[in-house]
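Sharing a chain and its predicted structure for anyone who wants a worked example. Both blocks are below, sequence first, tokens second.
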Amino acid sequence: MKLRETMTEQGYRRELQASRVRLYISFLVDTHAVIKIELDRYEDNIAPTIDVYPVEDIIKGSSKTNQIKIAVALELARKDLAMR
């Protein structure tokens, strides 16, 4: 998917950049994988369930809006990796 620098993309980009310090259930690991973590809300002693999915699988099953979010996240990940 080609990003066009729309206002929607810019909003998602700001949202994703601000969310680096927060814990989410699903997140982009690198440019190839997404990890989904299931945590028990009330019991800390229950081990989390962790699943890894290829980014392509996540994109295929996503709405157009979520595809844009994923494209923005991938762009940010590539920039972060290039800076290292």
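Comments welcome. The first helix runs from residue 7 to 18.
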